[in-house]
Amino acid sequence: MPELPEVETIVRCLRPRLAGREIRKVRVFFRPIVRRPGAAGLGPLQGRTVLGVGRRGKMIVVRLSGGMSLLFHLKMTGQLFCCAAGAPRDKHTHLAISFRDSRGELRFRDIRKFGFALAVPAAEDGSVPELSRLGPEPLSLGFEEFRSAFAGRRGRIKARLLDQEIIAGIGNIYADEILFEAGIHPEADVSRLSGAAWRRLWSAVRAVLRRAIRHRGTTLRDYRDGDGEPGGFQARLRVYGREGLACRRCGAPVRRRRVAGRSSHFCPRCQRKRG
Question: Does domain 4-132 have CATH number 3.20.190.10?
Answer without folding.
Answer: yes
